[in-house]
Design brief:
Layout lengths: L8 H6 L17 H13 L1 E5 L12 E3 L3 H7 L5 E7 L6 E3 L4 H5 L5 E7 L3 H11 L3 H8 L6 E5 L2 E12 L4 E12 L2 E6 L6 H9 L3 H42 L5 H20 L2 H6 L14 H65 L10 H24 L4
Parallel strand pairs: 2-8, 5-9
Antiparallel strand pairs: 1-6, 3-4, 3-5, 6-7, 7-8, 8-9
Helix pairs in contact: 7-8, 8-9, 8-11, 9-11, 11-12
Length: about 400
């Protein structure tokens, strides 16, 4: 879990002097020019939706949040992967270099997608200098995990989304952050760990001629669309896990079944909460005052994203109810098994009690009585057999056995 000592862009915007803390590698005392620049960056930003670091208490036991970029890059053995995909120079997109980035975006006929994976803080700061990215947005991207958010910074805007990485063996979730900087003729995607659906984004971008006309916002749509597709796949896997739990509850539940169901329930709830946190951001895309999308040609695509998100949330909610159903099946199965055990014990007790009474009667010793003979013993055995047979016949007639 992340601690609460990191600053958010909201707090920076409310207190421009807090912009001094945007760059953790700068000296404690900044010159007046840098302070003024940071304060100006904070003032020009406008938070439209989301933000914060809170996670529901019920989810905290199964969710691990991503650390700051400096911590992740220090512990990650892989090297930084920076890729540029340039559109507009020809019929097909081509790979580009960082040194030609400014030249590429200076032409309106071009569009470039920059993808930063396993990056270091200096990698993102270098890209921010080349593209003029807002310092507040860069600070948010370098900080530990935060909830999905949408911020506008004049000529570009910033989107943060959550990528849930699943450990199926333990039902644990790592909440990672996908940061998207969207401006004229460019989109920068920055993620501290590799994206599980990056290849799908590359394939779609290479086969979508609409990118040349609809530009950066359409590329953003492709990324978010693949993010939703990724969550839909996770939802299907979760439903499979729930169905398996239902079958186990009905057939042969283990002694640890209750613990497994509780862990599965928290896992499904956490996944639902991580997806639900995107709702405000997806709705904010369609706000009339968000001119990058609202009223543009890509508006219809983002409306489709909003509808898909709502359907996904409905599916996850129904899955949560299914987990409760698995628990109820388990309780019913245990109750049925307990009833069978009690029924057998009751039958045994019903048979043994009159037999005990008869044996006790014949076991009473009185001199001179004729029952204490061979014929008396035979009579006792006959009485016991007839009594047991009669009891069993009555129980069978009542359909208790």
């Amino acid at each position: 879990m992340t601690d609460g000592n990191e600053a958010t862009s909201d707090s920076i915007a409310q207190n421009p002097r807090g912009a001094q803390d945007i760059d953790d590698h700068q000296p404690a005392e900044m010159d007046e020019g840098k302070v003024a620049e940071a304060a100006a960056d904070a003032r020009e930003g406008r938070a439209l939706a989301g933000g914060g670091t809170s996670i529901a208490v019920a989810s905290q036991e199964v969710v691990d949040t991503e650390d700051a970029a400096e911590v992740v890059s220090a512990t990650n053995e892989s090297t930084t992967a920076v890729s540029l995909l340039v559109f507009g120079d020809g019929p097909d997109p081509r790979e580009g270099g960082v040194d030609e980035l400014q030249e590429i975006i200076s032409h309106d006929s071009n569009f470039v997608w920059v993808d930063l994976s396993d990056y270091t803080p200096d990698d993102l700061r270098t890209m921010a200098e080349l593209l003029g990215l807002n310092r507040v947005a860069v600070h948010v991207a370098l900080s530990p995990w935060q909830r999905p958010r949408l911020d506008s910074f004049g000529d570009h805007y910033f989107v943060a989304a959550t990528v849930a990485r699943i450990d199926h063996s333990t039902f644990r979730i790592q909440a990672g952050q996908l940061d998207l900087f969207v401006g004229k003729n460019y989109l920068v995607s920055a993620h501290k760990l590799p994206l599980p659906f990056r290849d799908n984004i590359v394939a779609r971008s290479r086969h979508n001629p609409e990118l040349l006309d609809l530009n950066a916002s359409y590329m953003l749509y492709i990324v978010l669309d693949e993010l939703l597709a990724y969550y839909e796949e996770l939802s299907e896997e979760v439903r499979g896990n729930v169905e398996a739990a239902e079958e186990q509850a009905l057939s042969d539940p283990r002694d640890t079944f209750l613990q497994d169901v509780l862990r599965l329930k928290r896992y499904v709830f956490a996944l639902d909460q991580l997806v639900e946190q995107h709702r405000q951001v997806f709705e904010a895309f369609l706000r009339p005052d968000f001119s990058f999308v609202s009223g543009q040609e890509v508006d219809v695509y983002f409306r489709d994203l909003d509808n898909r998100l709502k359907r996904l949330l409905d599916t996850l909610r129904s899955t949560r109810e299914s987990v409760n159903g698995a628990f109820e099946i388990y309780i019913s199965h245990i109750s049925h098994r307990t009833n069978n055990i009690i029924r057998v014990l009751t039958i045994v007790s019903t048979i043994i009690f009159p037999m005990t009474l008869v044996v006790s009667f014949f076991g009473t010793s009185f001199k001179g009585l004729g029952i204490y003979s061979t014929s008396g013993f035979v009579a006792m055995i006959v009485i016991l057999v007839v009594m047991v047979a009669s009891i069993l016949a009555v129980l069978k007639q009542q359909r208790w056995i």
